Structures are given as C-alpha cells and as structure tokens.
C-alpha cells in the first residue's frame, strides 16, 4: 500500500538540495550561516573589489600630483583632514595626530579638519541581492563631509586624508561613488592611512 507523501517530501526527494520543510530540517545556526553566506561576498570577490578601489583611488592621486607639478614644482598637495567618531562624547584628537603625521610623511600640506558623529542606519539586506549594506549615514548626508566637499569644490584643497575607508563608507558602491565624484568632478583624491586591502571591506 502506497502512503501519501506531502509536496515538500516529493520535492525534497526529487531535488535533494531543496526542502520546503524549513527549520525542521536545519538548525538555527545553519539558517544564520546561510543568510550570512548570501549577504557577504566571497573573499576572492572582496579582494578583487578592494584592488579595484585602491587602483581607482591611486589613479586620482597620481593625476592630482601631476597637475600640482605642472602648476608649480615647489607647491605640495593640500589636503583636508576628515574623521568619523562613534559618539558625541568622542573626540577626534587621536585621529588628528595620526592624520597630521601621515600628511607630513607624504609631503602634504594639511589644512582644515572636519569630523562627523557616526549615525547608524537601518538597512534591509535581501539574501543574494548583492546590494551593499551601509553601516552609517552616507557621507553626503553628513555636515562635516559636506564642508570637505565644499572646500574641494572651491579649489581650496587637492584632496582629503582619512584614517581608513570606513570613515567614508563601509559600502563598496557608496565608497566608489565618493572616490569617483571627487576624482572626476573636482580632480581631487582620497588618501587613506590604512589602505583598503589591510582591513575588511
């Protein structure tokens, strides 16, 4: 006598990789691991994307250096300092010291300093969508970053120096858009103390 099977059983038998039973066949850990897998790009993909971002950023720095050399061989590149602090009570003083030291080592003239307080954003990541998830408010919505862009747009600086890319954005697409906006529209560059490949993206 043939027993009746549910649609879920038939699909699971005909396609072992698919199950409609959900959490009854998996542990909660497996479910979380699967969701994380869908959300995060593979390590090779992340490394390739980081390499692309490094090359793009360095291209705009080379172009800024060449323009500066053509205008005046003795003038050094002028940079603004930018920091993103994690709370209103935090002060960017330690960042300023690091940025100043880096600017001196690179031969940059460091001008005004700006900072913003990181404001977390709530984003929904659809599994497998490939869409990045920003952690904080996008840079173009921050007042300090707005001042950085205003001074660069006005020709008062050749670029901006920051501690790492996460001070600008942890989202690859958002970060790339900022690099391109400064480089293509304003002929400016971003200098990172900690390059993209040295940390998670």
Blueprint (SSEs and pairs):
Layout: H1 7-14, H2 28-39, H3 43-71, E1 78-85, H4 93-106, E2 109-117, H5 143-153, E3 159-162, H6 172-186, E4 189-192
Parallel strand pairs: 1-2, 1-3, 3-4
Helix pairs in contact: 3-6
Coarse shape: globular
Question: How many β-strand stretches?
Answer: 4
* Biggest sheet: strand arrangement: 2-1-3-4
The largest pleated sheet is described as: 4 strands, parallel
**Unreliable segments (pLDDT under 50, ≥5 consecutive)?**
6-39, 124-132
How far the N terminus sits from the C terminus, by CA atoms, comes to 58 Å
Give me the number of helical elements: 6
Bin the strand percentage: 5-15%
Q: Output mean pLDDT.
A: 77
Structural class: alpha/beta
State the helical fraction.
40-55%
- Rg (CA only): 23 Å
* Element-level helix/strand string: HHHEHEHEHE
Characterization of the model:
With 201 residues, this protein is of the alpha/beta class. The chain is globular. Strands 2-1-3-4 form a 4-stranded parallel sheet, with helices on both faces. Helix 6 (172-186) links the parallel strand 3 (159-162) and strand 4 (189-192). The model is unreliable at 6-39 and 124-132 (pLDDT under 50). It has helices spanning 7-14, 28-39, 43-71, 93-106, 143-153, 172-186, and strands spanning 78-85, 109-117, 159-162, 189-192. Helix 3 (43-71) runs parallel beside helix 6 (172-186). The protein starts with 6 loop residues before the first helix and ends in a 9-residue tail after the last strand.
